[in-house]
UniProtKB/TrEMBL annotation:
Signal peptide: none annotated. This is Enhancer of mRNA-decapping protein 3. The keyword Nucleus does not apply. Keywords: Cytoplasm, RNA-binding. It is found in: Cytoplasm, P-body. Residues 309-513 form the YjeF N-terminal domain. Residues 218-254 form the DFDF domain.
Amino acid sequence: MQLVPIRVVVPSSYGQARVSLQQSSPRIMATDWLGSIVSINCGESLGVYQGRVSAVDQVSQTISLTRPFHNGVKCLVPEVTFRAGDITELKILEIPGPGDSRSCGDLQQTELGIPGVGCQVGPSQNGTGKMLKKPISSSAPQNIPRRADVKNQDIIISPQQQCSKSYMDRHVETLTQSKGFRRRHNSWSSSSRHPNQVTPKKSGLKNGQMKSKDDECFGDDIDEIPDTDFDFEGNLALFDKAAVFEEIETYERRSGTRSRGTPSEKPARYRHDENILESEPIVYRRIVVPQNANKEFCTDSGLVVPSVSYELHKKLLSVAEKHGLTLERRLEMTGVCASQMALSLLGGPNRLNPKNVHQRPTVALLCGPHVKGAQGISCGRHLSNHDVHVILFLPNFVKMLESVTNELNLFSKTQGQQVSSVKDLPDTPVDLVINCLDCHENAFLRDQPWYKAVVDWANQNRAPVLSIDPPINEMEQGIDAKWSLALGLPLPLGERAGRVYLCDIGIPQKVFQEVGINYHSPFGCKFVIPLHST
């Protein structure tokens, strides 16, 4: 029978024993190797196996390992058998002593032992298979630390030892060190704080149960742990993004199709209020008057709102009243829109809330004995209903218009205050002054003493002024306004009118068409919009 030479590496403490075994009989030699933990290198094709020797057959020249590991991963089969011709190198990691009674299936208890530096025994140059012992650095016996010893003491390995260790040895050692660090990190013992202080241990069934649960949760009995982490960066480097997109673009150019979201196509950026869907071109001039407007305004969205003459505006209101939009309805709509604008100017919800009851805003409402004054009284009634302190000035007249009388009766049912003398107006500045003194037709009122006195009071009060439907001629305006509110369509107001706002008083579109105005509502979702001079 011809023996196949195999390179065998054994621990240094067993070097002498290994030579003596060469001189013994094959039966004794095979029996003594049983139970040893070995590492078998079968070349690049089969890889490296580790396990405990369960059988050695010198007749068929085979060796069997129980509970084997293949390249660091536990095998699915309980036992594997190798032929001598398949083995390139055999390393003996641990040899059981004479009094060692451990069974062959106890591999898990010793797989974390650190092997010593061994001597190499290999075939001679003449090919006879005779084993020769090579010199070793030290003949002193080396202890193989058990698992418990590895946890409690630091492991110092020389560079020569590190080079002679197999893949399994380095993997096991790294695993042991990482587990030891994890245990020390999870259980921050008192030795790190006070090296000489010992933490007393508690006894009892409850503590024992907790300890068993801790061992079960944080124990080290892990059969399979990957030796290396997944290399995300390396795998990502294998993907050539530029080449892939170039291939996609080449295909699209050839086929004439184009997919959305390609890198070369920069997506358009839209505002939060901009429509991304394609639509018809926007027409900004939606209102066309029959005569050339003396002045044009535009809204915040860019729509053009032309001004109309006083005669056309008066005709528009007359036709709307003929179709059912009576003066009472128009007064109510004007009062609501004017009060909404006034509440916004007073501060809105920041000023008018239950926490600011002690800071009620005060509004001085200056009205004349005409329709413009009735519009102001309607606005004052709505403001008073919203917890605003309203002071209404209306001069005493023997006979007034029915619309003024009706609005005055409704206002008297509110908490508002009515005065007829300038002396009863407040001496301190108010929050807002609403001017409804001026009228388009009754110009003689400006010569009355009460009118001049009220104008002087308003100019000296230093409060901001809101004018409702002011006249066109600036000479007819005795009070400079900061804001002006126009009805339906604006009049060509001058600079003394301040900033112009437009309110919707509910005139239907066909009424505009009846007077020759091509009209499309510029209000959108609001009833009061600001206008800007073009």
